[in-house]
Amino acid sequence: MTRCQPIPSIDIRGGRCVRLLQGDFLQETQFGDEPVAMAQRWQAEGAERLHIVDLDGARSGMRANADVIQRLLRAARIPVQVGGGVRSLEVATDLLRQGADRVVFGTAAVEHADELERWVDTVGADHLVVAVDARNGMVATHGWQRTSDLDAVTFCQKLREKGVRRVLYTDVERDGMLGGPNIQRTRQIADVLAVLASGGVSSIEHLRQLGEAGAEGAIIGTALYTGQLQLRDALAETC
After folding, report:
1. What is the CATH number of the domain that holds 223?
2. Active site residue 133
3. Catalytic residue chosen out of the listed positions 11, 54, 171, 175
4. For 146-193, how does the pLDDT look when each residue is reduced to its tens digit (9 = 90+)?
5. Counted domains in the chain
6. Catalytic residue, candidates 54, 56, 133, 171
């Protein structure tokens, strides 16, 4: 069984820490005004990695929270991966220079698939993650506001051909619902690429199931912020 690393997510909108329900910008819950303080909290509780999302950037394609993310990267003592609005190689390399360990391409990987090999060569396969966000099994883009005609597993197979090694798979319909991740689809993707799973993870049992499915990590948001899952417990059970 693969060890599934619990990874706290810090989703930023308008400079604040928030969570969306199923990616719906009209269903937002605020969990703090200071993302840097939140990062320090998760670090103090033992987090081994952080996942940062610029929600405004994911929706608009523009880096709306660049200053906040830069401060967060300066304060971080553990590896940080950043996504949301990473639509060009220039943005990706800038984030890496600021201290990000990994950059997450989403919409850009779908719209500019012909550029992926160059991006992988420039950034390095270990520092590039492609977000595969799926609604009803089909890839969603533009902050989950649009759904393409690309099957998620087929897309992952194409990504592997481009040199991509790691994807972040999110089942949009499960995100924020606390009902458990899509184990079957995660297993299918883990057969193709290294996978971080997201969407619905809310218990230690979910982490165990994801580990059995081959996921190397799980992005956890709502369950940590509401207290349904304690990070220290999750880390202790998966060490």
Report:
1. 3.20.20.70
2. yes
3. 11
4. 888 899 999 999 999 999 999 999 988 765 556 789 999 999 999 999
5. 1
6. 133
